[in-house]
């Protein structure tokens, strides 16, 4: 039953992630443009260059703000990652471990 719920949550997260691929790409590109325009703004020595890079960075920042809903896609990706880790780390409960500290009472009764 636990695997079923993990699968169900994973499927919903995958659908949300796939629905937000476009905005995620747009956010990535616009943030890259903002970063590079800021770097070129700092390196520019002419006033025209600074104004041009400021305008380009402002337009890219506006585009990045418009793509903020893609953060839901990033959250879905994080949920998928944790579900993947949980799915692979599940140990069957019917197997007993050989570690004596897991079942201290049982080991203590065997010693007596």
UniProtKB/TrEMBL annotation:
In Swiss-Prot or TrEMBL terms, this protein is called Flagellar basal body rod protein
Record keyword Transmembrane present: yes
Recite the lineage of the species. Bacteria, Bacillati, Bacillota, Bacilli, Bacillales
Regions crossing the membrane: 7-36, 51-84
Q: Which UniProt keyword terms apply here?
A: Cell projection, Cilium, Flagellum, Membrane, Transmembrane, Transmembrane helix
